[in-house]
Amino acid sequence: MAQASTPLNATVQQVTRRIRERSAERRALYEERMADQHRRGVHRAELSCGNLAHGFAACGAEDKDRLKLMNSANLGIISSYNDMLSAHQPLEPFPEIIKEAARAMGSTAQFAGGVPAMCDGVTQGQPGMELSLFSRDVIAMATAVGLSHNMFDAALYLGVCDKIVPGLFIGAARFGHLPAVFVPAGPMPSGLPNKEKARVRQLYAEGKVGREELLEAESQSYHSPGTCTFYGTANSNQLMMEIMGLHLPGASFVNPGTPLREALTRFAAEQAVRHTEAAGDYRPFYRQIDERAIVNAMVGLLASGGSTNHTMHLVAMAAAAGLTVTWDDFTELSAVVPSLTRIYPNGQADVNHFQAAGGMSLLIRELLGAGLIHGDIPTIFGTDLTAYTREPFLEDGELVWREGPAESLDPDVLRGVAEPFAPTGGLSVLDGNLGRGVIKVSAVAPEHRVVEAPVRIFEDQNELKAAFDAGELDRDVIVVVRFQGPKANGMPELHKLTPYLGVLQDRGYRVALVTDGRMSGASGKVPAAIHMTPEALDGGPLSRLRDGDIVRLDADAGTLEARVDAHAWADREQHVAELDHYHVGLGRELFGGFRHLAMRAEEGAGVFGGFEADDLARQAGQIHDEDA
């Protein structure tokens, strides 16, 4: 086991310092604004009698009496609960648990608002997927609406999945004068092994089993309340929240519907009360989350082979807290952060196996001991991250924390820094004459990380199935799916393509995917250059490609190049696609403004602009209001 006294890794120090220096002006402006919000009053004491009466009109007599007293705390609850989606259904009883815990401490809690929660698993390959990425920013705005009443001394954010937690984080950052506690729901118990699920999907893609067999396999895999158990964006969210100190230690992967899960939710409410100004240990979000916490999240993501979506989400989350993160920061950290986990799709285990092998306590212990994360960050549990090497247990009904294991209980799933699965992280950035993109290499075998082949171009993911069925892709091929960026159609995940590409690779062909769309945290064994920026609609080089061009993807060297004569490439006209069919139906017409405002993938693919960065540029005369 690595020693806790190890000094901070030089590269981690350098990246942290670079983010801090790069962000100095906008971070200072962010902190100034949060301090100003605090000075104006963080709770109901600033409301008029009429305002306040409206704010507690629906409460019971006991809560009304406490809300009239300005020295008690009132917690705001923001939740992504709905009962259709397995990850969010367990959140239904949480508000009542939180209210009871607050009352027991002489305080109150109110359900401030719900935020939408959509599932990429349900919308995969469907038109609704084109709303998915933008739902993050809708969630951030819904969070702001819920907290806008200024009735609250702290907030609890109940959410789990892909866009929900980043959206809640962005909202929390803009209400950074409030203490913030993030409350997870936990993963469902393990179901059908991931290897078997992937096998059935590929058999279905080849037409060797029918829809009935496929549905049965999927139902055995996604079978009960809780988060999906593979290591995609949802579970990457939980890891990042814990390693930033926004979860309680060990809270991320406790199954829903258990006494321990309920006890953790109750304690989360108690901590929120303790950290209010009224309780005397005021711990606002903006003082807790800085560049050190963001770097911790990046390192945790790399060490665990986490979701590629966070190369956008973390950029947007950091921006909301006045920090500027680039893909180069990910690349530099990836070179020194070892791969410590094998969780599907990077292996066959799921997050329950990861939890049993040592889970977050061991992962954090190893990263702290190797000097790869900042231990000196304030958390919702204490003044540093060392407490996060402990695990929660119930002793005679009381919640306690004990030291977690000192070494892995299953080295096929989780390892220490001394014997990693690979010496570097699971994400890389690609550069070349096709732009910049991201590739997740942790699940890609070394022999598949370099592919040079003719391209076959598609402008709609549904076209690929027809080409596959016709045998047109039975060769070495780099599949290009373009005009899938945020400005084009909201940047949907293209995970529907995975089984077809996997079949081609299994047949012995050299195969890769290049796209300005997304492939999600479930990116698997086929090398995929995703999030290509600038996107094709925004003048990106993908719009110059033609069928048959030779492209070389080299994940080891970090390059992506069209092997086309430089003069001919420069003279090529950009192809213009017909995209109207993406813009109507299933509510997509409501998001036209979002598509127009969307920033590039490396800037977070959000619609909010640069927060303080835009204001600083305006002050410097670099942009004008009519340009914003």
Automatic annotation (TrEMBL):
GO cellular component entries: cytosol
Keyword Zinc: no
EC code: 4.2.1.12
One Pfam family it belongs to: ILVD_EDD_N
Keyword Iron-sulfur included in the entry's annotation: yes
Domain Dihydroxy-acid/6-phosphogluconate dehydratase N-terminal: 74-385
Positions that bind [4Fe-4S] cluster: C161, C228
Residue intervals of the Dihydroxy-acid/6-phosphogluconate dehydratase C-terminal domain: 412-605
Names of the cofactor(s): [4Fe-4S] cluster
Cofactor binding comment, as recorded: Binds 1 [4Fe-4S] cluster.
GO terms (BP aspect): D-gluconate metabolic process; Entner-Doudoroff pathway through 6-phosphogluconate
Keyword annotations: 4Fe-4S, Carbohydrate metabolism, Gluconate utilization, Iron, Iron-sulfur, Lyase, Metal-binding
Pathway: Carbohydrate metabolism; Entner-Doudoroff pathway
Molecular function (Gene Ontology), one example: metal ion binding
Coiled coil residues, start to end: none
Top-rank taxon: Bacteria
Reactions listed under catalytic activity: 6-phospho-D-gluconate = 2-dehydro-3-deoxy-6-phospho-D-gluconate + H2O
Role this protein plays: Catalyzes the dehydration of 6-phospho-D-gluconate to 2-dehydro-3-deoxy-6-phospho-D-gluconate.
Similarity-based family: Belongs to the IlvD/Edd family.
Family annotation (PANTHER family): D-XYLONATE DEHYDRATASE (PTHR43661), PHOSPHOGLUCONATE DEHYDRATASE (PTHR43661:SF1)
Protein name: Phosphogluconate dehydratase
Species for this entry: Halomonas beimenensis
